[in-house]
Write a structure and sequence with these properties.
Helix content is 36%, strand content 13%. It is α+β, with helices and mostly antiparallel strands. It has one domain. The two termini are 30 Å apart.
Length: 148
């Protein structure tokens, strides 16, 4: 007779086209990467100039419009979400797939999306999106979404 599986044990599951993905911000810390430097590269021209002389680590209140929850986020991230990511030319056909997906998550407040949904919104093939973000390499913190 086998012993029961301990509660809370996580299993690695191969992602499918219906697996949801998101930006795992903790990955940036664990990988010892500078998220603020990468976020600066996604600012619109107007805000690149403004943030060139500002502290990108300054925190501001952010209100989740769906839940009303208030959290502290870096000012640069707040500007990206509220302004830059809302511009019509934020994602173009010439934007690399990794940057396009990252920007898409910025524009939707990091709401998890499936590979099918991501592909539809950035104009790529779903299988290409799935292969890229389910590979052993993690691109810019974009990983399968798991509820903890």
């Amino acid at each position: 007779m086998s012993s029961p599986i301990p509660k809370g044990t996580k299993f690695l599951v191969r992602p499918t086209l219906d697996t949801k993905f998101h930006i795992d911000y903790l990955w940036w810390e664990r990988a010892e990467r500078d998220l603020h430097v990468y976020l600066r590269s996604h600012l619109c021209a107007e805000h690149k100039e403004i943030f060139s002389e500002m502290d990108g680590n300054a925190l501001v209140d952010n209100v989740d419009l769906q839940t009303g929850e208030v959290s502290k986020v870096p000012a640069i991230q707040n500007i990206l979400i509220s302004h830059c990511a809302q511009q019509s030319d934020y994602i173009t056909p010439r934007t690399s797939m990794v940057n396009a997906v990252f920007r898409l998550f910025l524009s939707n407040s990091n709401t998890p999306l499936t590979a099918r949904e991501l592909a539809e919104r950035i104009g790529k093939q779903p299988n290409m999106v799935l292969r890229t973000f389910s590979s052993p390499r993690v691109y810019k913190g974009i990983r399968p979404y798991t509820e903890d």
